[in-house]
Amino acid sequence: MSSYKIDLKEGILRINFGESAQNDQIVRDAAARLEEMATSGELAGGPLLKINGTISIPVAFVLAHKLAHIYGAVAFSDPKLGKYVICITHNPSYKLGDLID
């Protein structure tokens, strides 16, 4: 079992905390899972990736660093807005702060 869970389902990266741990271990587990997913081809990149789930700030930096290189845009779910917010973009179809379903 890992301290951080990451799964790609229906085009959405689903994230959540797993076993209890401190951020140093959670960051290592998140990075290892992303690497595993990239190596297997599960994270093949594309124009947009949506992320949904709970995250700590250190893990958010790990995800941002790894995913910004392979996706044109990254959007994170905002439950208060009921939308995804574009927070990283190299894709001219999306602007920072755009809200998408």
Characterise this structure.
The radius of gyration is 13 Å and the shape is globular. The mean pLDDT is 96. Helix 1 runs parallel beside helix 2 (57-67). The protein has helices spanning 23-40, 57-67; strands at residues 4-9, 12-17, 49-53, 73-78, 83-89, 99-100. The chain contains two helices and six strands, in the order E-E-H-E-H-E-E-E. The chain has 101 residues and is an alpha/beta fold.
Compose a concise summary of this entry.
The chain has 101 residues and is α/β, with parallel strands linked by helices.
Task: Name some characteristics of this structure.
101 residues; alpha/beta; 6-stranded mixed sheet; 2 helices; globular
Overall number of strands: 6
Q: End-to-end distance, in Å?
A: 32 Å
Low-confidence stretches: none
* Count of distinct structural domains: 1
* Series of H and E elements: EEHEHEEE
Global structural class = alpha/beta
Major pleated sheet: 6 strands, mixed
- Report the oligomer: single chain
What is the helix fraction of residues, given as a range? 25-40%
| Portion in strands | 25-35%
Strand order of the largest sheet: 1-2-3-4-5-6
Summed up, the helix count is 2
The value of Rg in angstroms is 13 Å
Shape designation: globular
Average pLDDT metric: 96
InterPro entries: CRISPR-assoc_prot_Crn3/Csx3 (IPR013409)
Organism: Nostoc sphaeroides CCNUC1
Protein name: Csx3, CRISPR-associated protein Csx3
Pfam families: Cas_csx3 (PF09620)
Give the SSE layout.
Elements: E1 4-9, E2 12-17, H1 23-40, E3 49-53, H2 57-67, E4 73-78, E5 83-89, E6 99-100
Parallel strand pairs: 2-3, 3-4
Antiparallel strand pairs: 1-2, 4-5, 5-6
